């Protein structure tokens, strides 16, 4: 069973642990740099990216996580987690810490006040079956993506699910719907890396 961590500093940690457990992964909460070495994959949950970024510094996880991403650890970021994986953020707080690794620029709280939160049924490339019911909560979108990034889903013209090699990110929160297909996709990425 792949051992998949959920960064547990702030955000909807338990929902991700539950969704991962349904896929058959061994899901563990992660708070310390020393816990990274034992992981086959890591989920960065939704929450508040500026708060999580600040806590990453306090818990001395920022540099170890950058190293882990550079070493090829599969990481899935949802919502705030997507922001943390981005190389840059628009409408972020000045100097908000990012892990980076994913060659995208995201716009924070991109959907604006009128549609602060909304739900949509999305076709996600690589996910079979009916459309994925996606929950967006003060979500970012991808404003710019590098050549190595594959867009898996969009709302209008805006990418809301992307993959770049071992990195996966969604603007939405699959952990809130009971549909575990995004987590299954991620665990598949984790297993593929283990075999490589
Ligand atoms: N708006 C939040 C942020 O900037 C993200 C919201 C979420 O994760 N649901 O971090």
Automatic annotation (TrEMBL):
One of its GO terms (cellular component) is glutaminase complex. Pfam families: SNO. Catalyzes the hydrolysis of glutamine to glutamate and ammonia as part of the biosynthesis of pyridoxal 5'-phosphate. The resulting ammonia molecule is channeled to the active site of PdxS. Pathway: Cofactor biosynthesis; pyridoxal 5'-phosphate biosynthesis. The keyword Ion transport does not apply. The gene is pdxT. This is Pyridoxal 5'-phosphate synthase subunit PdxT. The keyword Cytoplasm does not apply. Transmembrane segments: none annotated.
């Amino acid at each position: 069973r792949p051992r998949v961590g959920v960064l547990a500093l702030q955000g909807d940690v338990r929902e991700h642990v539950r969704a991962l457990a349904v896929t058959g992964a061994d899901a563990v909460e992660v708070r310390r740099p020393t816990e990274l070495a034992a992981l086959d994959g890591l989920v960065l949950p939704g929450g508040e990216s500026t708060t999580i970024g600040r806590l990453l510094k306090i818990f001395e996880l920022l540099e170890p996580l950058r190293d882990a991403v550079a070493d090829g650890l599969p990481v899935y970021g949802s919502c705030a987690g997507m922001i943390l994986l981005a190389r840059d953020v628009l409408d972020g707080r000045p100097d908000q810490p990012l892990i980076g690794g994913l060659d995208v620029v995201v716009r924070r709280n991109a959907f604006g006040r009128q549609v602060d939160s909304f739900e949509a049924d999305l076709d996600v490339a690589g996910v079979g079956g009916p459309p994925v019911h996606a929950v967006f909560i003060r979500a970012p979108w991808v404003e710019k993506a590098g050549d190595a990034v594959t867009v898996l889903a969009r709302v209008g013209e805006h990418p809301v699910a992307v993959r770049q090699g071992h990195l996966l990110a969604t603007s939405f929160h699959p952990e809130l719907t009971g549909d575990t297909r995004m987590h299954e996709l991620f665990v598949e990425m984790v297993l593929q890396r283990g075999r490589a």
